[in-house]
Structure formats: C-alpha cells, structure tokens
Write a structure and sequence with these properties.
Blueprint lengths: L4 H27 L3 H29 L17
Protein name: Spore coat protein
Organism: Laceyella putida
Length: 80
C-alpha cells in the first residue's frame, strides 16, 4: 500500500501525541498518592501505549519496513 507524505506526517504526529500522553500518565501515576487513582492513570497510559504500538505496526506495514519490532522494547512500561 502506498502512503502519502502527508499521511506519514499525520501518523508521525499522532504517534508523538500518544507517546507524550503515555509519558504524562506515567509521571502523574508516580506523583498521585491514592493507589486507586494511580491504577486508573496507569490504565489510561497503557491505552495510549497500545494506540502507539498499533500506529507503529501500521506505519511499518505501510512503509515496507519489514517485520515490526515490538514497540514495548522501545518504550518504558507503565508501572505504579
């Protein structure tokens, strides 16, 4: 599948936003005192991580980058 330069830019931007949201959740979960809230924030962070990974796989498939590398190997895991 051919993907336009503009679409690649959109995908790159969206991946950046997902990564930023994931990092913000990770930071917020470490700062909050209530464990229940920290768990919820971590769940949101994990959702952003899944979105990032999905976009990465799609981008790799569209650009013919070969076998997708698991994004989890490239990013810190969300923990409490």
């Amino acid at each position: 599948m051919q993907i336009s330069t503009k679409d690649l830019q959109y995908l790159t931007d969206e991946m950046s936003w997902e990564l930023l949201a994931m990092k913000k959740c990770h930071h917020a979960a470490r700062e909050v005192q209530d464990p229940a809230i920290a768990t919820l924030i971590n769940q949101v962070g994990q959702m952003h991580q899944r979105h990032y990974e999905t976009l990465l796989v799609q981008l790799q498939m569209a650009t013919g980058a070969g076998t997708p590398m698991p994004a989890t190997a490239q990013m810190p895991q969300m923990t409490q």
